[in-house]
Amino acid sequence: MSPEPMPVVAWVESPLQLVGAAEWAAAHRRRVPIAGRLTAQMPETADELIARGAPFGRCEPYLGIPWKLLSRHKHWLVGDGFSGQFRLAASILRPQRITFLDDGANALAFADTLIGRRPFTRPGITERGLTTHIAPFALDQIAGRGRVGHVDFFTAFEFGESRLCELDDRGYAVSRHAFEWTRRTARAYVTTSAGRILLGSARPVDGRMPLAEYLDWIRLEASRASVTYLPHRREPESQLAAVAAIPGVCVDRQSLPVEMVLAGAIERLEIVTLPSSTTTTLPLVLRPDSALRSVAPRSVDA
Question: Is the pTM higher than 0.85?
Answer without folding.
Answer: yes
